[in-house]
Design brief:
By secondary structure, the protein is mostly helical. The chain is built from three helices and no strands. It is globular and about 45 Å long.
Length: 91
């Protein structure tokens, strides 16, 4: 697709970024609770659901790399970013 000529894996970066933001929003929506399985497992499920739906559509392809990028976005929020927000009392 056009727009990917300079960086062929831009879609993976977009997946990572989208799920990083979703993880932040899920965490911020319930600030009284920690970022535990109750917050991140639904995001994992949503990522898997998206890929399963794409597998069933004739004009889309499921991608394990997309799923991995989604999970990486959640993990990037959960491990280095979320603890830093707590430490610096930003969240």
């Amino acid at each position: 697709p056009s727009g990917q000529a300079g960086f062929p894996h831009v879609d993976k970066v977009m997946h990572l970024g989208a799920f990083f933001v979703l993880a932040f929003l899920a965490d911020a929506a319930w600030p009284q609770s920690r970022f535990t399985a109750a917050k991140y497992l639904p995001l994992f499920g949503y990522a898997l659901f998206i890929e399963l739906v794409q597998h069933m559509l004739p004009y889309r392809d499921a991608s394990a790399l997309d799923l991995a990028a989604d999970i990486a976005g959640i993990a990037l929020y959960a491990y280095p970013v979320h603890p830093a927000l707590i430490h610096y009392k930003i969240r």
